[in-house]
Amino acid sequence: MSLTAWIRRARTPEPVAVRREIAVFEPADLFDIEIKDNPETNPVLCCTGDPAGAAAFNALWLKRIATSGRYAAAVSVRGQGGTPAAEGGPDAKAHDVVQAAVTVPRQTVLIGHREGAAWAALAAGRYPAAGLVLVSPQRFPKQLPKPVGEPPVLLVVSESETQSKEVQAVSEEYGITPLTFAGAPDDVFKGANAEALLDTILSWLDAQKH
Amino acid sequence: MQEYSSQAAYDRGEAVCVIGAGASGLIAVKNLRENGFEVDCYERDTVLGGLWNPQNQHSPLYPNTHLVTSRSQTEIPDFPMPDDWPDYPSATQMLEYLTSYAKHFGLSEHVWYGSEISHLEPVEGSRFEVVVKPAAGAAARRLRYGAVIIATGHHWAPNLPSYPGLDDFRGTVLHSSQLKDASRLRGKHVLVIGGGNSGVDIACEAAVNAASCVHSVRRGTWHLPKYLGGEPADYALARLSSRPKLLRRFLTDRTLKGPKRLAERMGVEAPGHGPGDEEPVRNGRYLEHVGDGSIKRRGEVARFDGYDVAFADGTEIRPDLVVLATGYQPKIACVAPELLGGTRDAPAPRLFARMFSPKAQTLAVAGLVEPGVGVLPIVHWQTHAIARWLQIRKSDPERAESFKLQVNAESGHNAVEHVDPRRRLVVDAEEYLASLGRIIDTLEQEPAK
Ligand SMILES: Cc1cc2nc3c(=O)[nH]c(=O)nc-3n(C[C@H](O)[C@H](O)[C@H](O)COP(=O)(O)OP(=O)(O)OC[C@H]3O[C@@H](n4cnc5c(N)ncnc54)[C@H](O)[C@@H]3O)c2cc1C
């Protein structure tokens, strides 16, 4: 974040505070003595444009991420799932993501799906995410902040999206080539395709220095 | 340094040494690590958080210390405080915040506690050798670093005024940093000396706890309430700063008119300059206590006499307890004053852009400013700039040159030395931030080669 961007934000009214729903799954919650929270790894915080919010990640994602030894969390931004609605556009939702991120015990990776990818990208402009994973991004902001602390960025899209303007713009913006997954962009929360997608993300994360 | 040369220094290569694990030191460690540096941070105490940690020996916290700057203006730019915290968090919350910052970014593993740096000096060109003060019986440890950032704070050496008769005074005299517990005020006749934020806060504590409270103040100060127009005062004033200059002045004057009139009614003169020119007093309760008589204001103390205290106006009182809220002397003892631009006779540092040593390229100080606004964001941008500078210093000689010119020019903005030593660290936040912005731009304009 640039100093000017910070000054502007510090002088703009803060979004109304809401009590946010945050779902957490820690490796210890698995009751599997083989799997330990590895302090060398970064936690993961997920958000999605799906109105279910954090709950969308309960079926498969959180548990599977925890199984890989990482602290796993998901947040419902204002108006999603168990988080009350409140005023505010993408910036307020990015605020919700940052506020959730700072409650995670260690520097966290942000994973955003659909509109959630846009919020995660905005959040990464204010908070030094340990990594930024964008899954089938949608309604991406035109003015994208440079991610703070230069985290590694992964873009994963469904095969059907690779040619879309939006995806090309995002991949150009970050200077990265998207990876693809099989299946529909809105159907990533359970099933064999979802598992494959998650494995792609987790092995990418493991390949980063954290 | 003969006495240290018995043992070879341990060479830490290009690693950076940060001295102090208060807010400034922690922010420095985080930003240096983010920029790829290895960091060793030395903290003489056994805890982190610096002055916000009551377990730190000599902590200057007094009963019920709260922030005088509001949450949104105080939090570190890339690690906000929880937004369900109050507008003005307590000292306890501030410590909780710094602790979670340290934990979040894994900073503690880079901190060596119980390790005071007693001395540092330049060796082989741009490198530094630091000496860790030995624990009883052990030998001093010496280490070499690629660069050093001093973040030792400036609230550790109480500034103790001398008055005739003070030494023989029969009541109790404490410096504000020694008043740990409001119960010490209970039932006492209390005299508080000093009109800064600490003095005013403590006078308010005495107003509700003590049998009586007299507050001795030498000169006028700006008094701001904690809220203006329904918003935290610093936020409200900062918002005006983005307006064009004349409009800004007009709006600021209009916003401050009410508080100024109230202060005048209570006998508090605002000094000629604006509230940005020195640390203003921010306290919403004080003037009300003056208004209901629970704080009685007096001028300067002339002398102490047995059980009595006489003021310059000839009046006398007989306090049980005198609290000296007379501030601190900024002191950086671990380095020769010359390295920070001072002299033996006038040791106060004269730094480039308030942070870079004018003598050594790899020596900087973080947090040695009183900006009248939240200090942590300023330190964040300072250490961001320092980290970037250390990065490009070697990798990009061309940019390093333009940086040096830039920093030299920026220092002109702050060249006006405040005659009053108490205002030496004061910067105009607006100007200083703009200056930091220009410095960072010079360092980052296009990607480093
Ligand atoms: C009563 C009070 C109220 C304040 N209120 C506010 C406020 O509301 N808002 C605001 O923004 N600021 C406020 N401040 C200003 C405060 O200075 C900053 O907020 C900030 O805490 C400064 O942090 P620091 O790390 O620079 O210094 P410190 O917190 O003083 O930390 C310095 C650290 O360095 C260590 N150290 C010193 N010398 C050595 C050595 N030789 N070797 C190793 N370690 C060493 C010390 O033990 C300490 O831990 C207040 C200050 C005081 C005194």
From TrEMBL, chain A:
SUPFAM superfamilies: alpha/beta-Hydrolases. Gene3D superfamilies: alpha/beta hydrolase. InterPro entries: AB_hydrolase_fold. It comes from Glycomyces rutgersensis. This is Alpha/beta hydrolase.
UniProtKB/TrEMBL annotation, chain B:
It comes from the Bacteria. The keyword Acyltransferase does not apply. Keywords: FAD, Flavoprotein, NADP, Oxidoreductase. GO terms for molecular function: flavin adenine dinucleotide binding; N,N-dimethylaniline monooxygenase activity; NADP binding. Belongs to the FAD-binding monooxygenase family. Belongs to the FMO family. This is NAD(P)-binding domain-containing protein.
